[in-house]
């Protein structure tokens, strides 16, 4: 069934059930819900379709209605559990459809029968829905839900204790308002005793949930200091690591990792972990979990390792475990699930990280990015030392091919979602290669050996095309363009780092900087709010400004347009903040309480009369009351801020639609004017082409005369070459004749051989320069003068050689003259060396000019294609011109055309 048809049928069934709650309508609606669940519409939640939104709102409303049949409610809740498949879907279900309050209301309606299957189902879905999502205390039915959880945790019903503990752990984690509400309950001490008794439970899942709740509620209190003190913390570490390694499921491992991450936020507990004697062995076994194929378990393990990298002492130990090539077997846990005898070898940790690093971008994007971040942290620690170990270098040499494999060309045809993932991965890989591996000489040499200019040029060209195409689309978000621009600029920064170490990298880098499409990413970087992006953009701008074809004017216009867009986006928010903010009386408070709160704050800030109140036993209760009021005010303020942001987004979206309409209208008017001017331009171009045709005929005649001159010059060179060969044979015969009588002739022969080698090298240079002359045409005319001067020098030297052959007949005079001419030749060699240095310097200047000439060549080729279509009537004349011209002359004629 089609998706839209299914949505319409479901919406019709919902309306029929609302009008008449009969058994037939309920069965029909239940069938439609089952068909809807078979569509697997989890990814469609983020699409924002109107029919899907209406269907979801209707289903959630029916689930929260007490008069709805329990069977239908259970079916709808099963659908919600199926839709909550990832973090984005859970966020949408919680924020857009208010599913948390609805499920809490269902639990409240059936709170008298907590063992009912519908209540257990709601608890399981709520536990899945509230994971890593902050629930405000002011949310509807949350207070009743917390009361229900506290009551059932202390009950004797084992089937309901586990989901209640999991849901309580989600609500308490990083949520100070819910923690304060639970601490203010009358039976909180009884709850603490029950939770402490659960620490001896047989189920590892119950133990993890209990530790998570106790850490959230008591970590900074006296009870928490006793539970997590120096005597017990090592046993807690051992218990948590054993649960992570030997957990009875992904959920248990997930909550165990979250517990250890929360404990590491406490500096005292983090210091305890650095001194834990079994830390290296435990981390080695945790790294062994990366060899599994489960992306969820690998993501949680990488999250734990990244949290450990935040502690300096732990990061050093992690480097030793990951980069060590081999090590002993681990003995922390007695039995591993799903692993062989060598699963815990330390040498496999780095390989497992590299495997997750190269995971497909569609399947486990979070694992790949987490592995990149972890390797960045570890390599920063390892390469920051005075001496880099051989293990780190060998690991880097093994890592580089994988990183280069990730730098492949992006493909916009697969959609924006995949393009976002590829750009995010490319940015991380470029940052890792740029900031770390290119900062140390040893690793920079490895990078320069494996990175090619063609790879970087292809990568930068693909990103540049994506950035340019997305900048022309009005529907493209600013964050998406900034993501592509960041990946592109990091790639260019990598090319800048390696331009002196990789062949042809300098020319490719200058070529990319002179592309006009570089304006969009540079302007986004220079107008960004992030300091690193601005600094990266400025460094590239400093290198691009001296280039001849850098579009500086377009860059200025783009920066001004970005600033104007930001100002226009900020104005509706300011106007809404002035007009739509509710008055201060929306907060439910009186003037007397405000004055008392302000008085208490003033006393706490100034310190006056504080010692007198410290003796009062009720000061802590008063402070708790005011803290609860302040937290209530904070929650209400957050809700008002959320409402304000929603209105601001709606207004900005309306302004954006108006701007799109105006732009489309302006484009239509511009196209109409352009079509009107095309007729006039066509007539004018016909006259211009007639004039241009006459000029081209003159150029053809001129080229014929040039060709005749070149042929005469070539004939002269051929005669000189034959003459040189004859003289060379005579010289060899003279050397063979006087070889036995004259020892000095050996030295002269060596000098002559060196001169002949120099002559060959000069001839090769002449040929290379002649080829460059054919490609560059008018831009390298100065090199022709240098070649002619070199040819004249060769002729002069040939005449000197013939003079030397005549002077060889005299014995004494010949020796003295040859010695003097030898000194002259040495001076000539010095002069030629200086000229060679000048030629090398000119070659470097020509490399920069070549990049700009390639751009001009591409533009001229486009113009030639247009003119070939327009000159189709004159094909007979062009064929006659080509028949009169040789291969080399054809190139010159085409360039002149």
Would you mind describing this structure in some detail?
The protein is an all-alpha fold and 897 residues long. The protein has helices spanning 3-19, 23-38, 50-64, 70-83, 87-95, 99-109, 117-129, 142-153, 158-172, 176-183, 188-198, 204-218, 222-227, 233-246, 250-264, 267-274, 279-288, 295-309, 312-323, 347-357, 365-383, 390-406, 416-437, 441-450, 453-471, 478-498, 505-513, 519-526, 531-544, 552-579, 591-606, 610-614, 619-737, 744-776, 781-807, 812-870, 875-884, 887-896. Helix 6 (99-109) packs antiparallel against helix 7, helix 21 (365-383) runs parallel beside helix 23 (416-437) and helix 33 (619-737) packs across helix 38 (887-896). It is elongated, with a radius of gyration of 40 Å. The two termini are 62 Å apart. The model is unreliable at 326-347, 472-476, 573-597, 603-617 and 888-897 (pLDDT under 50).
